[in-house]
Write a structure and sequence with these properties.
By secondary structure, the chain is of the alpha/beta class. Helices cover 26% and strands 17% of the residues. The chain is built from 13 helices and 19 strands. A 7-stranded mixed sheet has the order 12-11-13-10-14-16-15. Helix 1 links the parallel strand 2 and strand 3 (57-59). It starts with 13 loop residues before the first strand and ends with a helix.
Length: 436
């Protein structure tokens, strides 16, 4: 759930993933079609303000298409302005003496369909930042991003505003990728469907969109259309591939995606209500948060756990947000001058940055870490120069200042304690023995 305030001080006059009726704001940018990034856009006064002043809401072409498919945004159709991905766009912010040009590049964030990250670049004064919105990208994905690169090497970034949804000590350092999860789920689904031709699968998620590849794969596995509500069907109007597998007719569908949120008999379609307790319906809840809640009591290595009270209910580890490891990869790859968390709930920004810094020891296991455990176990990241140096908590003897030291100097994370502390090597060895 985004807590980002929408403003970047060095980029006055524009607002990102937030909508306020402010005469100083002359352009809006939207990273994707999720409600927690659209605060204020439903306000009739705000919509009137945008229309009256002919302001633009910049987003990816796919996001614009989805927004225009929503009835509640009918008045804003002309305000939505699609920007092609991976192409620099020069936009003038404002129209008075304070107007200035900014170059913005949108690049895929792989959070949901149409989701993007924004690279903002300003010449006077010089400033470059990355706003990730919500994302889920691997280290390999990052290295393919042309918008991060100069002719030689990488662009220097002054700031990164990043998706910190799972950046707390109790989250998994490594979260299985969606592709890995699907490889585990496919045999589970196949077994249930093959037991009886009347069996079927119900898919439950926290949002209406963001599960497109999942639905396409399940439709392939079941060789069936996917039953959805009228509202969900309308969202994908005009989307190649999706419109081919979705139907509002439940009969003969072996995949149902017709209820938002946690499984509920009352909220189910008539067919699911009829079969809810019959054993015909396998209920799959695709939610990282729900999986973690179950995982604490069922420490299995599979990316899904069976509910103890309902053998037909499974919690599947499905995350469209980055793991701590993936955020760390992004930060280490781009080495910005400053970091800013976009999601701050239940802890401070310093806590988030300290958690990332402590994660220089990488766990390969899908292991829930309690606060008392401190660091995860595994291999240490190597420094960027390829040497076999110590972890990021050790003293950096190189001429260049490390990112962690830079953040400490600026007060973004806690400074080293003067008192001696156990070495990371000893702590790592202790934790490895614990897991053996």
């Amino acid at each position: 759930m985004s807590t980002f305030g929408g403003r970047i001080p060095q980029l006055p006059g524009l607002m990102i993933d937030r909508f306020e009726d402010d005469p100083d704001i002359r352009a809006y940018f939207l990273s994707h079609d999720h409600s927690d990034h659209q605060y204020g856009i439903d306000d009739p006064d705000l919509q009137s303000y945008i229309i009256k002043d002919s302001l633009k809401i910049y987003a990816s072409p796919l996001t614009v298409r989805m927004l225009r498919n929503r009835r509640k945004f009918e008045e804003l159709h002309d305000a939505f302005h699609p920007l092609p991905l991976d192409v620099p766009h020069k936009i003038v912010i404002g129209s008075s003496e304070s107007a200035y040009p900014v170059t913005v590049t949108l690049t895929s964030a792989e959070h949901i369909v149409g989701s993007v990250m924004f690279v903002f670049e300003r010449e006077t004064p010089k400033f470059r930042c990355l706003y990730t919105g919500d994302f889920r990208l691997s280290k390999q994905d990052l290295k393919l991003k042309r918008c991060f690169k100069l002719h030689r090497g990488l662009k220097p970034f002054d700031a990164i505003y990043f998706d910190s949804t799972w950046c707390t000590p109790k989250n998994l350092w490594n979260i299985p990728t969606r592709e890995e999860v699907l490889r585990y789920v496919e045999p589970l689904v196949n077994t249930h469907l093959q037991e009886d031709e009347s069996n079927y699968i119900c898919v439950y998620t926290m949002y209406d969109v963001g599960y497109e590849n999942l639905l396409l794969d399940l439709a392939r596995i079941a060789d069936s259309a996917v039953h959805v509500t009228e509202e969900r069907a309308s969202l994908y109007k005009g989307f190649p591939g999706m419109t081919d597998i979705l139907t509002t007719e439940p009969r003969n569908c072996r995949i149902h995606f017709c209820q938002k949120g946690y499984p509920s008999w009352k909220k189910s379609c008539s067919q699911v209500r009829r079969d809810y307790n019959s054993g015909r319906v396998m209920r799959l809840v695709f939610s990282y948060k729900k999986f973690i809640e179950e995982h604490k009591e069922n420490p299995e290595q599979n990316p899904y756990v069976q509910n103890k009270k309902d053998k037909y209910l499974y919690h599947v580890c499905w995350s469209t947000h980055p793991s701590l490891a993936e955020v760390s990869d992004l930060v280490n790859y781009l080495s910005p001058d400053s970091l800013h968390a976009n999601v701050i709930k239940g802890c401070s920004e310093k806590d988030i940055l300290t958690t990332l810094q402590r994660g220089s020891i990488n766990s390969k296991k899908w292991h829930v870490r309690d606060a008392s455990e401190g660091l995860a176990c595994g291999e240490k990241h190597k420094p960027k120069d390829g040497s076999n140096g110590n972890s990021s908590q050790s003293t950096d003897d190189s001429a260049s200042e490390s990112l962690i030291d830079k953040l400490r100097r600026k007060g973004c994370i806690e400074k080293r304690s003067a008192s001696p502390s156990p070495s990371l090597d000893k702590l790592e060895a202790t934790k490895l023995r614990r897991l053996e």
